[in-house]
Amino acid sequence: MSQLLWFLFLTAVAACMRYVGPTLGYLLASYTLKQYINADVTPNFGLDDSRWIGAWHLGWIPLAVVEFIMAIAMAFFPRTLPREAIRRQNSQIYSKPKKHTSINDFVKTVKRLLNNRILMFNTFSTTFYMFGLMGYWLFMPKYIETQFRKTASDASVITGTVGLACTAIGIISSGAIVSRLKPRPKYLAFWNLVTEAIDVLGTIMFAFIGCQKDDMHGSVGLDGSWLLNSTCNSQCACSPTIPYTPVCSEDGSQMYFSACHAGCLESGYINGSKVFQNCSCVPGSGVATPGPCPVDCATQFYIFLALLSFMKFLSSTGRAGNTIIQYRSVAPEDKSVSIAFTEISLCAITFIP
């Protein structure tokens, strides 16, 4: 593998890990929150009780170990790469005596960056694009689960595999094209504009793709909201904080938000499969099965996956150009501060909220 392809491969891996990290974090949080906060106490209530407090602090232990190991590995990273050291030795720029920086120099650098319109527009374009994309991507598994009647595990796998694979392919291909053709910065900026515009249009198209079967039990309230509680499940006093755990009537014609909303009073097993029995809202046998009712919308789901894959691939092709614009628009001595400014902008406006 050539050095160029190896560099592009590592770039794709680094970009993919930025998506894998939050996924692993959610899995770790899910596990720790299932453990009671006091290990010496065995509570007489379960996870669904409002009194349950998970051991959220346990997640910091493995994270601290991983961070410590990574810190040791990064400590061995050289201050200057071998090729860069040779280039500096052969350059007259670095033959001059090194200046001692001060607070005033830092202030001047910040002023130069703030007056750099190309850098500012590029930074805030990326920031606000990620701001709009973050919520959509975080709730994508739940969207797939509810809209296309997929299980939570299937939704997570689909979101992760499609996003990571298409993002990696997009970064590798765009990096190879940019390295070979060496387009001018204005063309790279125009391409970023095109990809973001197409991404917005694709997101709007999601509103018209999905399973249209409306079989959720309930009624429309005066304010237009969907009321899940009715007379048949009034004896269950279903709390509004009950998570979405759908059940389906035995004949597959009616879906309920949860077993409580179906009015189920008992649960058991029939032929090794769990069922809910004595459900007052289920006509006929009064039996409901866990999970959403089956619905035939495979075509819509494949169209959704194809559009999602195309959007992830297309949006990732702007990564290389975005980075090149940032590096070319600032002086060499200001590059490190410009990177820090971009990261601060992303964290303050996008990631923290």
Could you explain the architecture of this structure?
This protein has 353 residues and is mainly alpha-helical. Among the domains are: 104-211 and 297-351, MFS general substrate transporter like domains (Growth Hormone, Chain: A, Up-down Bundle), CATH 1.20.1250; 219-290, no CATH class. It is built from eleven helices and seven strands. The protein has helices at residues 3-33, 60-75, 82-90, 103-114, 117-138, 140-147, 152-181, 185-205, 298-316, 318-328, 335-351, and strands at residues 219-220, 226-227, 247-249, 255-256, 264-270, 273-279, 288-290. The strands form three sheets. It has a three-stranded antiparallel beta sheet, with no helix packed on it. A two-stranded antiparallel sheet has the order 1-2. A two-stranded antiparallel sheet has the order 5-6. Helix 1 packs antiparallel against helix 7, helix 6 crosses helix 7 (152-181) and helix 7 packs parallel to helix 9. The longest helix has 31 residues, at 3-33. It is elongated and about 85 Å long. The protein starts with a helix and ends with a helix. 21% of the residues are buried. The model has no long low-confidence stretch (mean pLDDT 80).
